[in-house]
Amino acid sequence: MRLTADFWVHAYLSRLRLADIPAFVVAHGDDTAGAVLVKLNTLDGKATVYQRSFDLMTGARQWVVLAEGDETEVDATLARQRGFDPDAWVIEVEDRQGRHLLDEPGLSD
Predict the structure, then answer these.
(1) Helix, coil or strand: residue 104
(2) Number of H helices, E strands in the chain
(3) Structure pTM?
(4) What CATH number should be reported for the domain holding residue 35?
(5) I want to staple 30 with a disulfide (CB 3.0 to 4.6 A). Which of 14, 49, 87, 91 is the partner?
(6) How many Cα atoms within 13 Å fall on the side-chain side of residue 90?
(7) Is residue 86 part of a domain?
(8) Is the residue at 17 inside a domain?
(9) First-to-last CA distance in the chain?
(10) Mean pLDDT of the chain
C-alpha cells in the first residue's frame, strides 16, 4: 500500500522543519496520487529538481535529478513538467548547504 501524496508531503515538510530547513509547497498537486517534485534552492542562483523514479526491473523507487543548474532554467523545467502533469506537487527546499533529506531512511525508498 502506497502513502497518498498529501500525506507524504506533510510528513516530508515536518522532517525538514525538525532539521530547521525551510521548505514550502509551490504547487499543490493531486492529494491522492500526484507526483512529487522537490526543488532544492541553494540560494546562490543554482537549483536542482528531484523526481521519484521507479525501476520496472527491480521495483525499487529512488530520487533522481530531473534538472540542475541556474535557477531560472530549473524553474522553466518545472513549468514544463507542470504543463504535462498538472496533478504534480512542487516542494521548494531552501538550504545553502544543499540538504534535502531525500536520502534519509523513510524518504529514500
Answers:
(1) coil
(2) 2, 5
(3) 0.91
(4) 3.40.1530.20
(5) 87
(6) 22
(7) yes
(8) no
(9) 14
(10) 92
Our count of domains for the chain comes to 1
Cβ atoms of 30 and 90 within 8 Å: the answer is: no
Asked if residue 12 is part of any domain, the answer here is no
User: For 19-70, what is each residue's pLDDT tens digit?
Assistant: 999 999 999 999 998 899 999 999 999 999 999 888 777 777 889 999 999 9
Name the grid cell of 96. 545553502
CA dist., res. 90 & res. 74, Å (int): 12
Residue 17 has pLDDT above 80, yes or no: yes
Domain of residue 54: give its range.
Answer: 26-94
Grid cell digits, residue 92: 521548494
Alpha helices in 38-100 (DSSP H): 71-84
Q: Is residue 35 part of a domain?
A: yes
Q: Please choose, from the candidates 73, 43, 45, 58, the residue with its C-alpha nearest in 3D space to the C-alpha of residue 109.
A: 58
